[in-house]
Amino acid sequence: MSDGYGAAGRMALGAPVHETIDTNSPAAWVALDTEVRELAPHAASRLPTCQELRGLPAGEPTPAEETRIALALCHPDGRVRGAALEPASGAAGLRPLLVVRCADWAAPVRLRARELLADVSGRRLVPLAGLILLLARRERGVFAGDLLDRALRDGPAADVESLLTSEVRAVRRLGYRIAVDRRLLTAAELARTAAAASGDTRVQTLCAEAALAAMGEDDHRDVVDPLLAARSPQVRSTGVTALRRAGRHSEAAAFLADRAGVVRACARYVLRQAGSDPLPLYRSLCADPARQPAAAAGLGECGSGADAEVLWALTTHPVPAVRAHAVSGLCALDAVRPERMRPLIDDQAAPVVRAAGRALRPYATGLPSDWLLARLSPELPAPTRLAARRLMDVRNRAQARGLPVVR
Hints:
Shape: elongated
Strand content: under 5%
Low-confidence stretches: none
Mean pLDDT: 94
Largest sheet: none
Number of domains: 4
Helix content: 55-70%
């Protein structure tokens, strides 16, 4: 009978809750709620009734009773769910389902569940943070989230700190947001977190900005240096901007050729605030860009038309990264010439081909169709074929709108 009904089917046969589902998984509780409703039409006789629930003794339920209450809390009949709320209130292991019922579609069940959950101490809500945040996406799921938020803001700092290492991203984000609001972390701790929180841009940005806001006169190095060393461009750019406040303007020159455009822009801003013109520095770097290839892109971002020929010369540089950044610099200067850019679609380096493809996109309608079709040949490298296909797509969309295209 349990086949096809997952945990609900096994529990209907008497399996204990803690042996049937991963009680630490928010998704497992939500899935159980669904599975019981799907099971009910096929095994109604094995599910609890209101009469059975009224006959349960007071106090902490036994494992067998806990299983029956859990099934009742997920029952499709709102009267059964409502009758299960009181017995569930005394069972710590069933608190997750009490959270689920706070978002119930039946108002009597929902309101009573909320009354019971409101009586649960704040510290006991913290382990349920993942489930509460998951259910907060539902139409009626805000109540438990508000309870948790108040508990974390008014409760012990240790409760908030326990969320910072959670494997659930939403829980970590909540923890850091409240930790920042409550000023539980030092500026140096925030900076190190911003630098290390790879893959989570929200936490990175939150902590980087909070680190700067909390930075004092004596901890510039402890805050700015980790930000400057971060892998995230957003975090590095925050660190570069902070060089101005720290009175370390000259150090921004080292980031003029950063691989990320946002960091280069911040470096130029800091230097200009100190009265330095970054353009001569870029021109000097582009005289030998092999060590700092992104200098070519930076030259295009702040240079003039007179710098275009320097960048065109760099499109034949032996270092692929220099060629790719030179193309980006030409785009920034609005100095792209399709006939000179076309050969780079056949470049041996994929980054160069991608950059050239982006540069040619505004000129796609003027590219010869036979030239593009020839680059769709399966004998050519994949990056070249992909760039040609994308340019052809641009041509086709323009043609469909009635715009003229070169044959």
